[in-house]
Amino acid sequence: MQFHKDRPLIVQSDFSVLLEARHPAFDETREGLSRFADLVKTPDHVHTYRITALSLWNAAASGVGADEVIAFLDSRAKFGIPLAVQREIRRFIDRYGLVRMERLGEDLLLVSDDIGAIKEMCQFKSLQSYGLCQVDERTLRFSPQYRGLLKQELIKLGYPIEDLAGYNPGEALPIRLKSRTAAGKSFALRDYQRSAVESFYREGSLQGGSGVIVLPCGAGKTIIGIAAMGKLGCATLILTTNGTSVRQWKREILEKTELTEEMVGEYTGSGKDVKPVTIATYQILTYRKAKDEPFLHMELFRKRDWGLIVYDEVHLLPAPVFRMTADIQATRRLGLTATLIREDGREEDVFSLVGPKRFELPWKDLERQGWIAAVECIEYRVPFGKEEAERYMAADARSRMRLASENEAKLDVVDALLKRHEGEPTLIIGQYLAQLRRISARTGAPLITGEMPNEKREALYQRFRDGEERVLIVSKVANFAVDLPDASVAVQVSGSFGSRQEEAQRLGRILRPKADANRAYFYSIVTADSREQEFAWNRQLFLVEQGYRYRTEAWKPDKEVIQT
Fold first, then answer.
1. Strand ranges in 21-99 using DSSP code E only, listed in sequence order
2. Which among 307, 334, 361 is the end of a domain?
3. Which residues of 508-531 are buried (b: 16+ CB within 10 A; e: fewer)?
4. Which domain holds residue 32?
5. What is the pLDDT of residues 153-190, one digit of tens each?
6. Rounded CA gap, 534 and 564, in Å?
7. What is the per-residue pLDDT across 355-396, written as a single tens digit (0 to 9) for each?
8. Final residue in a domain of this structure, among 307, 330, 361
9. 0.90 exceeded by the pTM?
10. What does the DSSP assignment read for 272-319?
11. I need a labelling partner for 159 at 20 to 30 A (CA). Which of 82, 179, 355, 390 fits?
């Protein structure tokens, strides 16, 4: 086997790929790898990726072919690609679309040009309950009621289905986008937003109508959702994370389309208006009085003839909504997210029930084009005081995480960073309310939590937008769908164990483009040599995959900073 010393990759037979972090071609190679492989870990010198069936199927669905993947790896691998890995890459990518779902009258069909695939499906015991009936050697017939469940089961068996069975048009609703907003500003889709919409719509063909758009916070995913609504011209149900997001969606729809207030409804705990465009929260849909009682509001899916359902922050889709989504596969579905990573491991269900990845643009590409801010990421490692270190050593694993997260020494770092960025719009973000209350009392900055009434919360956000408040302290309630475009500094004092999606969302609070230097700063304060430091490595994986590099520095008690 020929050895190419100057190349950055080692492709291993277990489908892991090692990338030299300090190689001159690191950034370019990382961007290419992220199209079909998942980042697993990021030690200082070598980053480890893994090629999986799902990562290849998402690549195939977004137009990446086996030849392209193999050529990319072969041109950058020190030792070439093991033949078994090449064969499996081709096999997995060829599996996408090997079996298609098509419609015939009232029935649906599973169709394949591969006779062996159909024969194999007839032998799977787990498929027998779906009433599959063999029409011929290339075709199976089944009832439309099993459309979603069958796709879920088949992907587990290694058959990612290409769904060409079509969709109900839904209730017609002409939606025209404005060329100027109510404030008189010109409005038009950016090139990548237009490409994202087209990749979902696909000229109205059977290949379009379902799928996921992956873009960072601040890149205008809401605008893409609104443009998709305009493209389809139909009644739309939008599902999102919280009441703040509901109001932001409504504000954007009224500002950027010719729809009127009477045509856009909010379906939340405080009001339940079902209009041609209705915006609801996942929380209200999954509400029930007791664990063994039915969900009271799932009927919203059937209260109108929806032509499109938009799943905002689709990586947070709750399990009960997955079950409902399996039943409504004849309705077009658009997922919007900054990351396909789910902490519960249900990425395959997103692929099957909402749709495969249709469009993704590397965060660094958007940064280079000026559409999102350039962010400097710094992790400060803070030592324990003597007494706290003793308590930590005596504690169990879970208590250790909390003790490390609430390390009192972090407060000095917060003070120093606020002084460094005095006058700049700053968010202090954390997991533990007691810690955040101490910071609020110490700094005088207001604290926003989930316990605060929506009206007061919105008023504080607005004061921050207007420049009347320069520092806000926020709990997990601000992780998702909070529009604070001028925020340029984020200080993370504690996180949710190893949640990569949370890290991505928190960085997203400061990504919107800035008027002047278009720079932002993301600080993460972590207790050194602790459980928290271990989880911080995992949280950073996704951002490293997107091209962000964390600079790690040790914070000394006398506030001197030493780079490590």
1. 38-41, 46-50
2. 361
3. bbbbbbbeeeeebbbbbbbbbebb
4. 9-95
5. 999 999 999 999 999 999 999 999 999 887 788 899 99
6. 17
7. 999 998 877 788 888 888 888 999 999 999 889 999 999 999
8. 361
9. no
10. E---SEEEEEHHHHT--SSTTSPPTTGGGGGSS--SEEEEETGGG--H
11. 82
